[in-house]
Amino acid sequence: MTTYIAIQQLTLNGSVYTAGQIIADADVPTTTLRRFIDRGLIEAIGSAAIRTDTAYTSASLAASAQESGVISLAKTFMVLSATTNYPARVRLYTDIESRDADAARAIGTDPTGNHGLIMDLVTTTEDLTWKHLCVAGSVFDETTSCPIIVTNLDSVSRSIVATINWIQMEA
User: Fold this and answer.
1) What mean pLDDT value characterizes the chain?
2) Lowest-confidence segment of 56-60, 72-76, 129-133 by average pLDDT
3) Average pLDDT, stretch 156-167?
4) What is the DSSP letter of 35?
5) What is d(CA 148, CA 137) in angstroms, rounded to the nearest whole number?
6) Which domains does the chain have, with CATH numbers?
């Protein structure tokens, strides 16, 4: 039986699989890959794996307007889920320069070059929460201030609250 699972990164039989690739390996049971995806990185960091919710609240933003700022996470972290109070786009970056250079990139357009993008997600009225993200990231200047852009995708002015559920991976 062949198993297909999307993952972040895994070395399997000498091959490295990265985010977006699909594993097709008849010799690896589904439970092994599920364990890697669900708990592998969390088990690797041991007792430091404390889930934390951190919220970024924007000013009132007109429809389609965005705000740049920073959210306090960790030097290195894993995002487990993200929630917004209204439809929004939330982007996290490794550094402020990358955030500012990428600010005008449209939804659905891939970043180019050394873009510094950690996460780019869009929530809708029907789906304000993204779960099981398992997105690892780190802040380039080794602080805990992670650059963020929040865009209001609602049809009216709103203050957007983006809540990130994450674990620390580096002290």
Assistant:
1) 81
2) 129-133
3) 97
4) H
5) 12
6) 4-48 (no CATH), 52-170 (2.60.120)
**Nearest-angstrom CA–CA distance, 76 and 99:** 17
- Joined together, the tokens standing for residue 71 give 């959210």
Assess contact for 138 and 75: CB atoms under 8 A.
yes
* Single-letter code of the amino acid located at 42: I
Rounded Cα–Cα distance for residues 18 and 6 (Å):
9
For 110, phi and psi rounded to 5 degrees?
-70, 145
**For the residues of 105-156, what is the DSSP string, one character each?**
PPTTPPP-SS--EEEEEE--SS--EE----EEEE-TTSSSEEEEEEEE-SSS
| Nearest in space to 73 (alpha carbons), one of 88, 44, 51, 42 | 51
pLDDT value at residue 33? 43
Q: Which residues pair with 147 in a beta bridge?
A: 70
Pull the structure tokens for residue 100: 């500012």
For the entire predicted model, the pTM comes to 0.73
Residues in the chain: 171
CA distance 19 to 21: 6
Answer whether 84's CB lies under 8 Å from 164's CB: no
d(CA 39, CA 158): 36
Cα separation of 88 and 78, whole Å?
21
